[in-house]
């Protein structure tokens, strides 16, 4: 193999490894997939936006809402989520926020607390680099 071909091969392998290391894998869901799972009863969706954001976007239809500012810290948030899923740490939970950042932080918090199937709807309600968002997909919301 010539040097240029070897370089291309090394770069290709590096890119595949980088993609595998940075890929979100099964910890994210698209907004349409999350909505379908909520509708079929396969997912408890929790909207972790702030009250001012709920007023702006509404709440994803089928989502429970937890105001992160009133949970009394991470322990309070974990307790509220646990109550919503009746203490089942293996229950599939989807988290959505305005643009996916707060929901990712919440996902990591729940995962560290032992919840095993926690997903971030990374595109959020308004959209992000991960996708157009719940609203742009024209998925239903409740005011």
Specify the CATH class: Alpha Beta
What is the 3D shape? globular
Whole-number average pLDDT? 84
How far apart lie the N and C ends? Answer: 63 Å
What is the name of the CATH superfamily?
Answer: Rhodanese-like domain
Q: What is the count of DSSP helices, taking H or I runs of 4+ residues? A: 5
Number of domains: 1
Helix/strand order, N-terminal first: HHEHEEHEHEE
CATH fold category name: Oxidized Rhodanese, domain 1
Return the structural class. Answer: alpha/beta
| SS elements, strand count | 6
Largest sheet: 4 strands, parallel
Task: Identify low-pLDDT runs.
Answer: 6-24
Task: Write out key terms for the chains shown.
143 residues; alpha/beta; Oxidized Rhodanese, domain 1; four-stranded parallel β-sheet; two-stranded antiparallel sheet; 5 helices; 42% helix; 12% strand; globular
Could you give a short description of this structure?
This protein is an alpha/beta fold.
Layout of helices and strands:
Elements: H1 3-22, H2 31-39, E1 44-47, H3 51-57, E2 59-60, E3 64-65, H4 73-84, E4 93-96, H5 101-112, E5 118-120, E6 141-142
Parallel strand pairs: 1-3, 1-4, 4-5
Antiparallel strand pairs: 2-6
Describe the structure.
- With 143 residues, the protein is of the alpha/beta class.
- It has a single domain (25-142), classed as 3-Layer(aba) Sandwich (Oxidized Rhodanese, domain 1).
- 42% of the residues lie in helices and 12% in strands.
- It contains five helices and six strands.
- The chain has helices spanning 3-22, 31-39, 51-57, 73-84, 101-112; strands spanning 44-47, 59-60, 64-65, 93-96, 118-120, 141-142.
- A four-stranded parallel sheet has the order 3-1-4-5, with helices on both faces. It has a two-stranded antiparallel sheet with strand order 2-6.
- It is globular, with a radius of gyration of 18 Å.
């Amino acid at each position: 193999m010539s040097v240029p071909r070897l370089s291309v091969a090394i770069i290709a392998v590096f890119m595949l490894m980088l993609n595998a290391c940075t890929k979100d894998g099964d910890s994210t869901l698209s907004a349409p997939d999350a909505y379908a799972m909520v509708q079929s009863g396969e997912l408890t969706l929790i909207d972790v936006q702030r009250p001012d954001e709920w007023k702006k976007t509404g709440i994803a239809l089928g989502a429970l809402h937890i105001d992160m500012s009133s949970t009394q810290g991470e322990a309070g948030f974990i307790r509220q989520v646990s109550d919503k899923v009746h203490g089942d740490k293996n229950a599939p939970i989807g988290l959505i926020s305005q643009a996916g950042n707060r929901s990712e932080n919440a996902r990591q918090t729940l995962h560290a607390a032992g919840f095993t199937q926690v997903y971030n709807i990374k595109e959020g309600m308004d959209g992000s680099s991960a996708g157009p968002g719940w609203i742009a997909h024209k998925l239903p919301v409740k005011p």
